[in-house]
Each structure stands twice: as C-alpha cells, then as structure tokens.
Write a structure and sequence with these properties.
Elements: E1 19-21, H1 30-38, E2 44-46, H2 53-73, E3 81-85, H3 92-104, E4 108-112, H4 117-125, E5 129-134, H5 137-145, E6 150-154, E7 160-161, H6 167-175, E8 181-185, H7 191-200, E9 204-207, H8 209-212, H9 221-229, E10 235-238, E11 246-249, H10 250-255, H11 300-311, H12 313-327
Helix pairs in contact: 1-2, 2-3, 7-11
Length: 328
C-alpha cells in the first residue's frame, strides 16, 4: 500500500518525531491522543477505553475535527491509532466499535493478542494500515504472513504486559524477514532511546510509561507522581497481578497491602488471586523500566519539544526518508 498525499495515513510522513504514544488501558484517552497528534507524534488509545460506542464516536469525531483544524492552520498533526484486540472480534459490542472505526476511517490500527488476518483485511478495505504487536519471532512470522504493514516489537522492560527478548537480538532477526514498518517498544523514554532504536534498525518507537506521567494523561495524579519518584528497581515483573507477566510499580503493590516478595499465585491465565478491592491497572499501577528515566510530569507539548532537542534534527530527517521507503 504505497503512501499517497490523499492517503489518511500519509501524516506519518510528516511527524516531528517517530514516536507512538502507547494505547494504555484506563490511561490513554482522546485528550491524550489529540495532544500527542498536535505535538507531531502518533496518539493512540484502546478500543475498549471509551465507556460506550457513543463515546467512541465522540472521540473519533473530536480527533477528526482537530486534524482538519490543524491542516487549516498549516500545523503538524500526527495520525492517530486505535488498539484493537484481535481475540475480541466476534463479540457483538466489540464488533460494533470496530465498525465505527471503519466509518471514521481510522488511519492506523495497532492489533494485538491473536491472529490479525481479519483486522488486516477490514482495515485495508477502508485505506488504513495495521501494525501488529508481537513479543516473539513466532508471533512476528504469523503477523507477516497476515500481510500486516508493520510490527511493534514489545521487548523486555516494557510497561504493562511485557516481552522478554532483548531488542538487540529481536529486531535484527525481524529485519531479516520483514521490510515493513518496525516499531520498537520497551524502556524508551528519551531522545537517546529514540536514537538507539533508529540506529538498531527500527523506524519508530513506542513510549508508554513516559506518557502516563504527562499532564494530559487521565491517570490519577498519585500514579503520575509515583512514576516520577520511582527508579527501575521499583519495577517488578510478575504474573500475580493480572494473571499474565507484566511490569508493576512496587510502591503501588505495597500500597495495596501486598508483599511483593510473597504475592498470591494466579489460579489460571488472566485469573489473579488478589484480595477484594485490589485490581490490576486500577489500584495496582503498571510501569516499565523507563520509570528510572522519568522525573517530572510535563505537558505533552513540553515533552515533545524536549524529545526533539534530545534526538536531533539530522536523525529525524533520515528517519522520514526511511518511512517513505517503507510505505512506498
């Protein structure tokens, strides 16, 4: 699918930085996504984050209006991305939301957890592009066979449900098999991380923890301040909180009355055995290894300006040509 000037995803060629804000459960909203898009980044949210299909429509309308207004002013506005769980397709309420994405022509879809074949067919039909989230070579090969436009490699150190592979081994192996768009995720929060990822062969990076601790994030203030006060040593990988391996802030585990060294074992996959009132994501908060790099809670615009300065114009210019080659 070559990029054309009228392609709804062509905005990816005009980003200020090759950064995708991660679509985080309960944290990413239209407000955060729009702030990232206005800053020349890719903003995103999970399809299940809006409380209803009607609210999803409102979010998509708002993002479309913001893009039109930015175009009219000649301002940058990155394309937005919606995270769609492939394993949830077939559920009527979820399918209804997917249909609203088609109606609004969502430019980018980040698919995850399952076979993306159906998502790819439907998204390509409306002119969008699909990036699939993978943690292993086996999952990457399946996604490549499904004709995805891009892969997001979730590596060790990512917040939320994390991968275990080193990017230094994972990314080069993917590049041997795939010449599409590659997004690198896991432990990236500054310009040095962006430069390192691009030098390794990635086309973009995904940042989650860094965007939790921004003014526009809908995370509780205590969550934001905990990230800013934490170090990497305060991040614990365990399957005890959500029933699948993920990274969590130790201070939030302790605040829920739990002993990080003696957490109850899950009863099954995705079935943690937690005390009443203790909830993954809601009362126990997630963060990646990059928490040790985060010490403030800026606006998205302030963060984007900082990242541009840290990354350097020369590298960004080279990345823009690389993206054009990938998509063209």
């Amino acid at each position: 699918m070559p990029a054309r000037d009228d392609d709804p995803t062509s905005g990816i060629l005009r980003l200020r930085l090759p950064v995708l804000q991660a679509p985080m459960f309960l944290v990413s909203s239209a407000t955060l996504a729009a702030a990232c898009c206005r800053a020349g980044l890719v903003g995103s949210f999970q399809l299940g984050n809006p409380t209803s299909t009607e609210e999803l429509d409102e979010w998509l309308v708002e993002l479309g209006r913001d893009r039109i207004a930015a175009d009219g002013r000649g301002d940058p506005f990155g394309p937005y991305c919606v995270n769609i769980n492939a394993a949830s397709l077939g559920r009527p309420a979820y399918d209804e939301r997917f249909e609203r994405c088609a109606a609004h022509g969502v430019p980018l879809v980040l698919s995850s957890t399952g076979d993306p074949t159906e998502i790819v067919a439907r998204v390509h039909a409306w002119g969008g592009r699909v990036i699939h989230d993978v943690t292993t070579m086996r999952f990457a090969e399946r996604a490549i066979a499904a004709d995805v436009d891009g892969l997001m490699l979730t590596c060790a150190g990512a917040g939320g449900h994390t991968g275990t592979l080193s990017p230094f081994a994972f990314l080069p192996q993917v590049r041997q098999r795939f010449d599409g768009l590659v997004v690198l995720a896991g432990g990236i929060a500054d310009g040095a991380g962006i430069r390192g990822a691009l030098s390794l062969g990635a086309d973009m990076v995904c940042m989650g923890t860094r965007f939790v601790a921004t003014r526009e994030s809908v995370a509780p203030d205590g969550y934001k301040q905990m990230i800013a006060a934490s170090e990497t040593a305060d991040v614990l990988e365990t399957d005890a909180i959500a029933g699948l391996s993920a990274n969590w802030l130790v201070p939030s585990i302790v605040a829920n009355g739990l002993d990080p060294a003696a957490l109850p074992r899950p009863t099954a996959r995705f079935r943690p055995d937690l005390p009443d009132g203790v909830r993954a994501w809601k009362t126990v908060w997630s963060a990646g290894h990059s928490a040790g790099l985060i010490h403030d809670v800026p606006t998205v615009a302030e963060l984007a300006d900082r990242l541009v300065g840290e990354t350097g114009d020369g590298l960004v210019a080279g990345w823009q040509q690389r993206i054009r080659d990938r998509l063209g």
